């Protein structure tokens, strides 16, 4: 199954790249992720729960980040298996600087369009739910990932840019 699309993050490209490389951020953003542990340079083991229609199960797998060209692009490779089947994916994420006029950007009007393109293979019982449902689920998981990432980016942006401690300046004499 091929997947592709894009999502705009309200931060500059270098910050977006850093967020997408941060294992703590990735763990928080991946729907169903239960554990996310570093096992080597740019390689992680994870456990997650996946639910597709009436089929659900726990998966154990690996995530690897490769072909890095900071802050332009990187490749994300994921594989996992469980009692209900297996999943293997490989995708290229390209980060393109852009501007936002919606007022969503945290630091001025800088934003980053994250374009993704890849392929996912699914087998076992989980594949029996049908292609259309798999497509819909993949899109939903990607959307939830980027929505959570946008939320984290926003929280971090506020903590990086505090509101002058909310104390008034001392009076001038």
Describe the structure.
The chain is an alpha+beta fold. The protein has one domain: START domain (Alpha-D-Glucose-1,6-Bisphosphate, Chain A, domain 4, 2-Layer Sandwich), CATH 3.30.530.20. It is 27% helix and 46% strand. α2 crosses α3 (131-160). The longest helix is centred in the C-terminal third of the chain and has 30 residues, at 131-160.
Provide the CATH topology.
Alpha-D-Glucose-1,6-Bisphosphate, Chain A, domain 4
> What's the assembly state of these chains?
single chain
Largest sheet: 7 strands, antiparallel
Q: Mean pLDDT, nearest integer?
A: 85
Low-confidence stretches: 158-173
Radius of gyration: 19 Å
Q: How many separate helices?
A: 3
User: Distance between termini?
Assistant: 71 Å
Work out the strand percent. over 45%
* Helix proportion range: 25-40%
Please trace the helix and strand order, writing H or E for each element.
EHHEEEEEEH
CATH class: Alpha Beta
Which architecture would the CATH scheme give at its second level? Answer: 2-Layer Sandwich
Strand order of the largest sheet: 1-7-6-5-4-3-2
Q: What is the overall shape?
A: globular
Based on secondary structure, the structural category is alpha+beta
What's the β-strand tally? 7
CATH homology-level superfamily = START domain
Number of domains: 1
């Amino acid at each position: 199954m091929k997947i592709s699309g894009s999502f705009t993050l309200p931060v500059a490209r270098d910050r977006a790249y850093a967020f997408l490389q941060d294992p703590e951020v990735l763990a928080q953003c991946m729907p169903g992720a239960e554990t996310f542990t570093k096992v080597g340079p740019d390689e992680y083991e994870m456990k997650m729960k996946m639910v597709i229609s009436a089929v659900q199960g726990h998966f154990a797998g690996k995530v690897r980040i490769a072909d890095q060209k900071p802050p332009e692009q990187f490749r994300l490779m994921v594989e996992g298996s469980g009692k209900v089947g297996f999943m293997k994916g490989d995708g290229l994420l390209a980060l393109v600087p852009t501007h936002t006029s919606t007022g969503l950007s945290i630091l001025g009007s800088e934003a980053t369009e994250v374009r993704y393109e890849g392929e996912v293979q699914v087998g076992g019982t989980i594949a029996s739910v049908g292609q259309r449902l798999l497509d819909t689920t993949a899109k939903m998981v990607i959307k939830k990932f980027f929505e959570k990432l946008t939320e984290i980016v926003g929280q971090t942006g506020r903590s990086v840019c505090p509101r002058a401690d909310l104390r008034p300046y001392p009076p001038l004499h």
